[in-house]
From TrEMBL:
GO terms for biological process: intracellular protein transport; vesicle-mediated transport. Residues 11-62 form the Vesicle transport v-SNARE N-terminal domain. Belongs to the VTI1 family. GO terms for cellular component: membrane. InterPro entries: SNARE, v-SNARE_N_sf, Vesicle_trsprt_v-SNARE_N. This is Vesicle transport v-SNARE N-terminal domain-containing protein. Signal peptide: none annotated.
Length: 75
């Protein structure tokens, strides 16, 4: 049984998911780093924005095809 990641196109697809996730991760990190420097009034919408960014990252991870385990016990 082959996986969508078994071909060159699969490798490109994985790279695309990885790139999307890295971008989302950077956005989350930036938003979280900014929160302590905000006023109390500014923090609530900033936290909501960070939560939305986490949800987007979760969506990226959940649409990513299954990746074979790096350890193959049959070898």
């Amino acid at each position: 049984m082959s996986s969508p990641l078994d071909s060159g196109a699969g490798t490109e697809l994985f790279a695309s998911y990885d790139s999307d996730f890295q971008l989302a991760y950077s956005e989350i990190t930036q938003k979280l780093d900014d929160i302590p420097n905000l006023t109390t009034e500014q923090q609530k919408p900033a936290i909501k924005a960070a939560e939305r960014a986490v949800e987007e990252a979760y969506e990226i991870v959940s649409r990513k095809p299954e990746v074979a385990s790096p350890i193959n016990p049959s070898l």
